[in-house]
Design a protein that fits this description.
Helix content is 77%, strand content 0%. By secondary structure, it is an all-alpha fold.
Length: 115
């Protein structure tokens, strides 16, 4: 179905961050999530899926209070420390993110960072 993947990804991605990332890690991982969400929306717009992206953002925002309650429930049952969660997270791009790696290399060149 046209737009289904776009809608589901853009709608659910913020909830993933909100519900599952412990408070001490939010500021560490939020920039990557925000960048990824921005790229998802940008790609949706360039592929003619702008309506699905906007609808997903609206629904995600509308249901955010419910997700905050779920966050409290999930985080109160967490069994491992934020330090442990941080230690098992991938701190680089996924292996199949070829276009993002190219974009990162260009950014590093523009900012003078060694590649």
């Amino acid at each position: 179905i046209k737009g289904f993947f776009t809608y589901q990804t853009i709608k659910n991605y913020p909830w993933l961050l909100l519900k599952n990332v412990p408070s001490p890690l939010l500021f560490k991982v939020a920039p990557r999530f925000i960048l990824a969400q921005t790229l998802f929306v940008g790609r949706a717009l360039t592929r003619g899926h702008g309506w699905y992206a906007l609808k997903a953002i609206a629904v995600s925002t509308w249901l955010m209070p419910k997700k905050l309650v779920e966050r409290h429930q999930i985080q109160s049952r967490r069994k491992v420390s934020p330090d442990y969660i941080w230690s098992i997270m991938t701190h680089d791009l996924p292996p199949n993110a070829h276009n993002l790696r190219k974009l990162r290399t260009i950014w590093w060149k523009l900012t003078g960072r060694k590649v």
